Amino acid sequence: MAVLSLAAADGELRFAELKRVMAGISPKMLAQTLKALERDGLVARRVEATKPPRVHYRLTGLGMTLVEPLRGLREWAERYIPVVRDNARAFDGTL
Q1: CATH: 3.30.1320.10, 3.10.28.10, 3.30.9.10, 1.10.10.10. Which one for 2-93?
Q2: Which residues does 21 contact at the CB level (< 8 Å), separation at least 6?
Q3: Which SUPFAM superfamilies match (predicted)?
Q4: Mean predicted lDDT score pLDDT of the chain
Q5: Over the stretch 74-94, which tens digit does the pLDDT of each residue have?
Q6: DSSP characters over 42-92
Q7: Which residues lie closer than 8 Å to 41 by C-beta, 6 or more apart?
Q8: pTM for the predicted model, two decimal places
């Protein structure tokens, strides 16, 4: 979700902006996710030397290569999650 949120921004987003766009994610989980994406070279981080520091995130070229596959996965999930849930309910009812 962070990759798609950054892709939709078409540039940089600050941490607070990302948190707002990704409703329901805790600050800790967002920070861990961004750090992992940065470590893997998918996200670049830029810090402004202000008080408090402003931290900006953007997708790298490598990160941009994930956008289309993730959009496809999101579309699949939106289409088929109701079927998956129905299958799980039916399976759980037979146990």
Answers
A1: 1.10.10.10
A2: 5, 8, 9, 13
A3: Winged helix' DNA-binding domain
A4: 93
A5: 999 999 999 999 999 999 987
A6: SEEEEEE-SSSPEEEEEE-HHHHTTHHHHHHHHHHHHHHHHHHHHHHHHHH
A7: 60, 62, 63
A8: 0.82
